[in-house]
Amino acid sequence: MQIDKYNDKLRGVIYDKDKNLRHSFKVTESKGFVTFEYIHTNDFNKEKHKDVANGDILEVNKIDSLQYQIIGYKNEKRTKKRFSALITLEKSKFNYLVIGIDHGKSDEMREKVKEFLDPNSIYAVKRIHIDYYSTGYSYDSSLKITNVDFSLKLPEKLTIKDFDFLGEFQD
Alpha-carbon Rg of the chain, whole angstroms? Predict the structure, then answer.
């Protein structure tokens, strides 16, 4: 589960990689308790989501041992950037190398970053700053990782919505 805060509202997301689904929840904190309310599901099996990033060329640059820059170019000419991201890692007790960029090649990004890392160490993503050039949208996230034991129940009939990165968390 990933929990983010947008406009002072908490949202939770669970990714089901096997089914290419992302389940969104409204998260409410009150009197030391946290409640989750199912909102909708995004289905990434649809064709329109598959072809957006297929032509992108990824470039990963090492800034130092714990910082990496990822640039996504629109084509092989590398003249127009789709996005750039600054990823900050930290050594960790457990592996959490999830590159939180909504892009079809996020697994490829993770693998390219792993090529630079010491295979005898374990890393977690600590901070991500992303600039999307086509929309002018920037995102900066410092990640706090906490171990929690909980379960959430999804409804039997999912509410499927088209994915809209900028509008998804608006009520």
Answer: 17
Beginning with the edge strand found earlier in the chain, give each strand of the sheet holding 2-6 in spatial order: 2-6, 9-16, 21-30, 33-43, 160-161
Tokens matching residue 73: 């170019």
Please name which of 151, 139, 130 lies closest in space to residue 4, comparing C-alpha atoms. Answer: 139
pLDDT tens for 1-45 read: 777 776 678 888 888 878 878 888 888 888 878 888 999 888 867
The encoded tokens of residue 135 equal 């929309």
User: What does the DSSP 8-state code read for residue 108?
Assistant: H
pTM: 0.64
Q: List the structure tokens of 7.
A: 């406009």
The whole-angstrom separation of Cα 4 and Cα 45 is 24
The DSSP secondary-structure symbol of 53 reads S
Whole-angstrom CA distances from 16 to 39, 58, 125 are 16, 24, 20
What amino acid is encoded at 126 in this protein? K
Placement of tokens 């999804």 in the chain: 154
Rounded-to-integer distance, Cα 67 and Cα 82, Å: 20
